[in-house]
């Protein structure tokens, strides 16, 4: 497969050398539609990089960005499709690859240097954008970067194979499936790039709208504050200077304050830009120092850093182990106290159980005595009932009282009867004497 691709590239180059004029016309005609899309993709992909470059006028960045743009354009142009050849399958344009490869970085630097002042003038007129978010978005690998890497790898692969095997002159057809696969991959990457660019534009619009809202809010509050200041100052100074003089003086002071405020804003912007530039230069210096150092020194420093981290980790582990030992000792003391309390509680329970056994024995003995006492009580109750049955009137006061009453009444009746008998006898005796 590698030999086939190398031969295909070589044959395409020979054919392009033979018919250079016709192919240039075809490239100019067929590549015109695709160049617009590629230019739009390039401009969208480099919007964030250009906004970051506008904040700081760094020569190294001006040189780096055009190189990136030229490489991007070169990568996109390597995969342009020759749609004018209707007979065969679409193929790559090696002339565009060679033209884009031959572009020198000095020309890119000149283009970047010409565009840099215009960008700086535009950046001075624009508001402060959220640079940190754009920097974070730039650090994340985008589909455009992946696109460029794949294209660069393809170009290097074709060049190596064409240079390694120049002796193969026979024409070997390139696999259409692989070509279609790469074309589909390019289309997918373009779609991803377009979607990411649209999302980035939407996000930029939203952030711009939010910043404008905040700016309007701040301006309204500032106007209210200035009006309040003016009213207070005029009311205070009008007592001594008069209304017109105080108003003129306050307006002059507010104008000077406004100028100073604008100067402060510009200085703050410059300060922020310089801070960003200083950080970027410091990062570049650190990277340069790290690259310039000896790899053994770097490895030694890495080992030292790892050793310090291990020391910190071991120290932390020792502190945790000491804390755990303290907790274990305190828990052991608590456990010994609990065991001692448990032993004494078990002894108390044993004593209570012995007391309970004694009490239960006493209760059993007294229960037997109680049963015997109840039996004796029952016998006595029966005897009492029997004696009550035989005793008659004893123990019954009502019956005894009634009996006494009846006895008294009977005694009285007997006495009356004796009296009556005596009187009868007397009457009989007297009557008998009379008869005689």
TrEMBL record:
- Family annotation (InterPro entries): CC_CF (IPR051885), CCDC113/CCDC96_CC (IPR025254)
The alphabetized list of GO BP terms reads:
cilium assembly
**Coiled coil residues, start to end:** 183-221, 264-320
Species of origin reads Perca flavescens (American yellow perch)
- Basic and acidic residues composition bias: residue spans: 1-13, 128-141
Instruction: State what protein this is by name.
Output: CCDC113/CCDC96 coiled-coil domain-containing protein
Q: Where is this region: Disordered?
A: 1-148
| Residue stretches of biased makeup (Acidic residues) | 108-125
Q: What is its main location?
A: other
Cellular component aspect of the GO annotation: axoneme; ciliary basal body
The protein's location, in the record's own words, is: Cell projection, Cilium
CCDC113/CCDC96 coiled-coil domain sequence ranges: 262-427
Query: Which Pfam families does the record associate with it?
Result: CCDC113_CCDC96_CC (PF13870)
């Amino acid at each position: 497969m590698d030999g086939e691709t190398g031969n295909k590239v070589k044959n395409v180059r020979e054919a392009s050398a033979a018919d250079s004029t016709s192919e240039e016309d075809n490239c100019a005609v067929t590549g015109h539609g695709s160049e617009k899309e590629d230019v739009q993709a390039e401009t969208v992909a480099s919007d964030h990089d250009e906004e970051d470059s506008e904040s700081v006028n760094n020569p190294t960045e001006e040189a780096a960005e055009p190189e990136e743009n030229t490489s991007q354009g070169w990568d996109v142009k390597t995969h342009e499709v020759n749609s004018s050849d209707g007979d065969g399958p679409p193929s790559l344009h090696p002339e565009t690859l060679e033209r884009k490869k031959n572009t020198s970085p000095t020309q890119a630097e000149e283009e970047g240097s010409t565009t840099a002042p215009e960008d700086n003038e535009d950046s001075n007129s624009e508001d402060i954008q959220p640079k940190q978010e754009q920097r974070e978005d730039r650090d994340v690998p985008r589909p455009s970067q992946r696109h460029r890497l794949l294209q660069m790898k393809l170009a290097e692969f074709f060049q190596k194979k064409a240079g390694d095997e120049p002796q193969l002159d026979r024409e070997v057809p390139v696999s259409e499936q692989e070509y279609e696969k790469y074309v589909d991959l390019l289309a997918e990457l373009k779609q991803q790039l377009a979607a990411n660019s649209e999302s980035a534009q939407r996000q930029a619009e939203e952030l711009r709208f939010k910043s404008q809202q905040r700016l309007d809010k701040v301006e309204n509050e500032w106007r209210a504050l200035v009006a309040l200041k003016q009213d207070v100052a005029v009311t205070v100074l009008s007592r001594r200077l008069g209304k017109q003089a105080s108003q003129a003086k306050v307006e002059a002071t507010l104008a000077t304050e406004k100028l100073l405020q604008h100067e402060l804003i510009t200085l703050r912007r410059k300060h922020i830009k310089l801070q960003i530039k200083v950080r970027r230069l410091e990062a570049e210096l650190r990277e340069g120092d790290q690259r310039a150092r000896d790899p053994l020194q770097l490895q030694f420093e890495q080992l030292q850093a790892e050793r310090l981290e291990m020391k910190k980790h071991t120290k932390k582990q020792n502190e945790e182990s000491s804390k755990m030992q303290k907790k274990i000792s305190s828990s052991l003391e608590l456990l010994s106290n609990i065991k001692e309390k448990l032993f004494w509680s078990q002894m108390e329970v044993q004593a209570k159980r012995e007391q309970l056994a004694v009490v239960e024995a006493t209760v059993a003995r007294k229960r037997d005595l109680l049963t015997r006492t109840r039996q004796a009580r029952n016998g006595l109750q029966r005897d009492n009932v029997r004696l009550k049955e035989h005793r008659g009137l004893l123990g019954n006061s009502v019956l005894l009282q009634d009996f006494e009453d009846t006895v008294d009444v009977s005694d009285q009746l007997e006495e009356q009867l004796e009296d009556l008998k005596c009187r009868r006898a007397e009457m009989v005796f007297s009557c008998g004497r009379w008869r005689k």
